[in-house]
Amino acid sequence: MSAVTTLTEEQLALAEVTLDFAQEHLAPHAVAWDRDKHFPVDVIRRAAALGLGGVYVREEHGGSGLGRADGVLVLEALATGCPSIAGYLSIHNMVAWMVDRYGDRAQRRRWLPGLCTAGTLGSYCLTEPGAGSDAGALRTRAERDGDHYVLTGVKQFISGAGAAGVYVVMARTAEVGPRGISALVVERDDPGVSFGANEQKMGWNAQPTRQVVLDGVRLPVDRRLGAEGDGFRIAMNGLNGGRLGIAACSLGGAQSALDRSLAYLADREAFGARLLDAQALQFRLADMATGLAAARALVRTAAEALDAGESKAAELCAMAKRFATDTGFAVANEALQLHGGYGYLSEYGIEKIVRDLRVHQILEGTNEIMRVIVARGLTEALR
């Protein structure tokens, strides 16, 4: 986590404390959690005790009151221990931010204390079986019935589903198009809520991924975040930060893979010399480090732009997510190759990092959609 932009003393201390936590509480158990498909809620609550359950929530509402430039440091450090758990915490913090940013006073009082301590976990529900990249085409409906909404639909690929107590659900309250979508808060125990089986996944096995099934869930109107029809805007604003979070998780996982490669090559000999002394391998390590430094700089630049409310922040977040997740996966895959056959064994932890980082190129908007966002920004003035 070498600095490529100037960090304050507070940021350096934050990164160091989080890195220590990751190495003590995440890294030693990551392979076993992945193998056993164990979701370590107790460890997540320990992280929340350090202020990592409400990173972006304002201090007066029980959070840490940090910005995105601080958050990417936290998530990168956590991901050096386990990208799967760091990725979930990125999503949980996105949910907490949405409640803080768009909730009213009563809603913040109701849900933020539990979210900030991780006594209640949060999940974000946008994707559906037939609506992934085209989020504006979602079909989950919330029909108005007096002072209530009746919510019916299925959400797909929901991280933390079943274990989480609070779900921010995007649902259609009007006819076609993004402007007909509203954001509603569903609780796990609401009648009509159920969950699909835990998905059998390539990676991210240390957190559950399930369908969320909404069968006539009756919600009072005060469960809506923001105004009716604001849901798509809320979802996209949340995803700007979520994309930075997943980008940072890719950096942390890849940095861990690079560090392990350096240690492995220093310890292993072939043809009478350390592998680390072979110039061909040194060049590959140099390229890995250069890619991570460039990705880290872009992620931090985008985070600062989002904190400052710059007009091009969404495009920068898309750039950062695309570049950092592609680079992170490439670095981890190269690390596996440098380990030879040992990289393919689960006990070394490299193949787990490769599997975990692969999904980062898909979630929070596929990297193809990130290119669409960037290209649209480039060509908008010429239309």
Describe this structure in words.
The chain is α+β, with helices and mostly antiparallel strands. It contains eleven helices and ten strands. The protein has helices at residues 9-26, 30-36, 41-52, 68-79, 83-102, 105-117, 231-267, 279-308, 313-338, 350-358, 367-379; strands spanning 122-125, 141-145, 148-159, 166-172, 181-187, 193-195, 209-220, 224-225, 269-270, 273-274. The chain has a four-stranded mixed β-sheet. It has a four-stranded antiparallel β-sheet with strand order 2-3-7-6, with no helix packed on it. A hairpin with a 2-residue loop joins strand 2 and strand 3. Helix 1 (9-26) runs parallel beside helix 4 (68-79), helix 5 runs antiparallel to helix 6 and helix 9 (313-338) runs antiparallel to helix 10. The chain is globular and about 80 Å long. The mean pLDDT is 96.
